[in-house]
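User: Please predict the structure of the protein below. I'd like the answer in structure-token form so I can feed it into my own downstream comparison script.

Assistant: Understood. Taking the following sequence of 245 residues as input:
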Amino acid sequence: MAPQTGSSPAGGLPGSPNLNTSGLVNDLAERGRRLRSLRTLATVQYWGTEGRAGFQEAILVQRPDRLRLETLSPLGAILIVTVDADEIAGFHTREGLFYRGRSSKENLLRYTHIPLALDEVTSLLMGLPPVEIPSQWQEGEGAIHWEVEGGGKEKVLFHPTLGVPTGWERSGADGEIELKAVFSDFFPTPNGFFPLTIALEAPGRQKWLEIRYKEPELNITLPFPLFVQERPASVRELPLESLGG
């Protein structure tokens, strides 16, 4: 669980009841079309039932379906994960092990602790609610919400002055929140205000994740070979599913 020193970054979701939500929904769609790629260093904090961890990460994102994560140490990368629409590969450099598996929500969870599909993860990492907003939605208190198949609900909240998304919630048919995210610490870029901090909480899974970016670069060219990797010679390969989780 998240530490109890003050409020959780994924706790309250700020909003304002006076926003022009129709215009903000259009702006959010345009924001999604504009934000396509990301390269950044980040500090990551994770809490879960298995314990707590903190580490430095190099993150590369190419929406909708390419991702590269490098967990760093003073001596270099200790884990390199590459993901595309077909395959996930993880090279554990210290152990000399290379894991490979199909690209799936379950396999992605093993490395990211984020229970979302690949296109949702890449959106989330770029400060975008991982949703497709339908044509019919309801508004209230600086937010919009709508029902999804199965009786659940999605909700997006907006900043009262910047007009950018500050929060997202996904609830089940029982009304319990399954996932919620907060975007904060916005700074101006040529592509609009961008969050330096992204916090994600899965209350039912008792998982909490906070990502703090350092000098992110947006909409740069990222060659496709960055998102695939081959097993190095003399390194043992194992199926990704054998990692468990």
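That's the full token string. The radius of gyration is 18 Å.
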